[in-house]
Amino acid sequence: MAKEIHETIGHHYIVEASGCDPKIIGNIEKVQQILVKAADIAGAQVWSISFNRFPPQGVSGVVVISESHISTHTWPEFGYVALDIYTCGKSVDPEKAVVFAVEAFGSSTSHITEITRGLDEGDMIYYHSFITWEERFKNGGQKKD
Amino acid sequence: MAKEIHETIGHHYIVEASGCDPKIIGNIEKVQQILVKAADIAGAQVWSISFNRFPPQGVSGVVVISESHISTHTWPEFGYVALDIYTCGKSVDPEKAVVFAVEAFGSSTSHITEITRGLDEGDMIYYHSFITWEERFKNGGQKKD
After folding, report:
1. pTM of structure
2. CA-CA 20 to 30 A from B7: which of A43, A59, A136, B21?
3. Of B75, B113, B126, which is closest to A18 when you measure between CB atoms?
4. By the CB < 8 Å criterion, does B124 face chain A?
């Protein structure tokens, strides 16, 4: 039987999503549904889920997926979401999950850094590299009633 | 009663820890103890804990703390730990937690990026900034029997 090799390289998206819909990002059930669906869209297997409310209106949530995780902390009073999507392996597509989640939060604009983690030069001394960009969404933006 | 203000600014440490002790980072109970103690050292309140083993020898764990989280994924076969410590608020000291955790894993060297998240210019358009450095540990390094 071939020895199972677990790639150390992972892709970690660090996202500051602005202009999100407070009715969505302040609702623990909706935030949980969005993150679990994001994991599914990435092609990741969900291992465990932990969601909590924090005062005055925020939600903190983590979805543990194989060797990696999706996490979010929301500030509905500022339309702001801090989102992390970190995946390992070649069978997952975290960027699709980022785009899905940020659009589902109703974000108008997001500041994103993609960190490539677990890189080494064959010497088992690991490091990461990163690129940063802004993303604007046509249909996003904080809804006004 | 004064309205509770929840600061969006947070400090997120992204750590690639190398040369860690496989007997520590491959042991789910030890990894969990280290992360919970790291939360305590940071001065953070623990909200929930989720730890899982993943094959062949790794551990994935998340500790949700107020508005933020500590997470780790370990590869004992490579002496490698991917560690995140993200905290919000002024009453916590995440850097102490990072140093404690990385030393407790027995790491000889760590590549660290500190990301300041939830920054804005008063316009509720959030972004992050970062600095990166290497840290070497006198007493760290993979133990040999």
Report:
1. 0.91
2. A136
3. B126
4. yes
Give the pLDDT of chain A (145 residues) as one tens digit per residue. Answer: 344 567 899 999 999 999 999 999 999 999 999 999 999 999 998 999 999 998 788 999 999 988 799 999 999 999 999 999 999 988 899 999 999 999 999 999 999 999 999 999 999 999 999 999 998 876 554 443 3
State how far the Cα of B43 lies from the Cα of A82, in Å rounded to an integer.
Answer: 21
Q: Is A73 a catalytic residue?
A: yes
Closest Cα in chain A to B122: A78
- Per DSSP, what are the bridge partners of residue A115? A12, A130
ipTM of predicted complex: 0.90
Cα distance between residue B68 and residue B11, in whole Å: 9
CA–CA separation, B81 and B73 (whole Å) = 6
Kindly state whether B84 is in contact with chain A, defined as any CB-CB distance less than 8 angstroms.
Answer: yes
